[in-house]
């Protein structure tokens, strides 16, 4: 009989009560909490020690904040790099910008429901990317227009635009739809494809563009003008 490996999570938050609550919620759904940290420094060490699939990372912590800890975790070379979900009590644009710039795959407010928390962890581990319900693609578009916004892959504007030329017509179409917030199921229905085929297209897009996940793909699509901000898209709680 095949045994499924449980999803592994590290929780980094300077409030013990928050860590305990999240651990209980995740454990009740078969998700294993393999480490906890109450500072950014401890979070980096915990990730290196336990190699989790996902990190729940508070922004405001002693010694090193969660954004810097996220940058260090995602900059690791030759290691399995986890997905990072940023957690905060503050619904402020600058934290969204900073989280996206640091390479986070998700952003949630701490008052998230237990069901949404579990769903978010599973979505991000599977390669999807999300923003909290109160945070919309409007913020992603605004992030992409900021002159000081970190750029996906560390490349300049001309280099990023040139990489788009490596995409097939179908892949360019998929990237536009991903940037506009369509889920895999919605992409499949819109393009009359199977979800497996959609996932293959997305994986190839990320590989060709040298991007880690869909958050970076969305930002790049806006930065390069492939998708224009304010294009009349409906708001969504998820990004692809």
Automatic annotation (TrEMBL):
Gene3D superfamilies: 3.40.50.2300. The modification 4-aspartylphosphate is found at residue 58. It comes from Streptacidiphilus jiangxiensis. GO terms for biological process: phosphorelay signal transduction system; regulation of DNA-templated transcription. Keywords: DNA-binding, Phosphoprotein, Transcription, Transcription regulation. Residues 8-125 form the Response regulatory domain. One of its GO terms (molecular function) is DNA binding. PROSITE patterns: HTH_LUXR_2, RESPONSE_REGULATORY. This is DNA-binding response regulator, NarL/FixJ family, contains REC and HTH domains. SMART domains: HTH_LUXR, REC. Residues 160-225 form the HTH luxR-type domain. It comes from the Bacteria. InterPro entries: CheY-like_superfamily, NreC/VraR/RcsB-like_REC, Sig_transdc_resp-reg_C-effctor, Sig_transdc_resp-reg_receiver, Tscrpt_reg_LuxR_C, WalR-like.
């Amino acid at each position: 009989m095949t045994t499924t490996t449980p999803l592994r999570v590290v929780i980094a938050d300077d409030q013990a009560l928050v860590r305990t609550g999240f651990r209980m919620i995740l454990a009740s759904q078969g998700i294993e909490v393999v480490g906890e940290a109450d500072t950014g420094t401890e979070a980096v060490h915990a990730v290196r020690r336990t190699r989790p699939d996902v990190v729940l990372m508070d922004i405001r912590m002693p010694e090193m904040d969660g954004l810097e800890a996220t940058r260090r975790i995602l900059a690791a070379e030759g290691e399995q790099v986890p997905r990072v979900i940023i957690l905060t009590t503050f619904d402020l644009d600058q934290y969204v910008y900073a989280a996206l710039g640091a390479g986070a795959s998700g952003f949630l407010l701490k008052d998230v429901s237990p069901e949404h928390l579990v769903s978010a962890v599973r979505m991000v581990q599977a390669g999807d990317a999300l923003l909290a319900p109160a945070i919309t693609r409007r913020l992603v578009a605004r992030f992409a227009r900021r002159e000081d916004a970190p750029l996906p892959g560390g490349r300049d504007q001309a280099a990023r635009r040139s990489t788009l030329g490596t995409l097939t017509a179908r892949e360019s179409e998929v990237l536009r739809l991903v940037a506009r917030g369509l889920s895999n199921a919605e992409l499949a229905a819109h393009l009359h494809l199977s979800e497996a085929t959609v996932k293959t297209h997305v994986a190839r897009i990320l590989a060709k563009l040298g991007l880690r996940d869909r958050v970076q793909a969305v930002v790049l699509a806006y930065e390069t003008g492939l998708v224009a901000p304010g294009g009349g898209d409906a708001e969504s709680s998820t990004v692809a």
